[in-house]
Design brief:
This is Transposase. It holds the Pfam family TnpB_IS66. With about 80 residues, this protein is of the alpha+beta class. It has one domain. The chain is about 15% helix and about 30% strand. The protein is built from one helix and four strands. Strands 1-2-3-4 form a four-stranded mixed β-sheet, covered by helices on one side. It is globular, with a radius of gyration of 12 Å.
Length: about 80
């Protein structure tokens, strides 16, 4: 379970479909180019694939980054 603090923010990126083959460094470069603001510890960023059944969640912690990946067998994420 991801436990964000009271100040945690979740950013569903509105930059469209993301190539989910990207690794942490490439996702961070995408964040820097689209957000234009500093990312705070506890923030989470959501990326979704073209089919809509997979997402990646990049979670920034004080020690570094966590990358979570979720794939649905049936259905799609809204």
């Amino acid at each position: 379970m991801i436990a964000g603090g009271a100040n945690a923010r979740v950013y569903p990126l509105a930059c469209g479909v993301t190539d989910l083959r990207k690794v942490i460094d490439e996702l961070m470069a995408l964040l820097k180019s689209s957000l234009r603001q500093k990312t705070a510890s506890g923030s989470a960023f959501v990326f979704h694939g073209q089919r809509g059944n997979r997402i990646k969640l990049l979670f920034l912690r004080s020690q570094g980054f966590c990358l979570y990946y979720q794939a649905l067998k049936n259905g799609r994420f809204p």
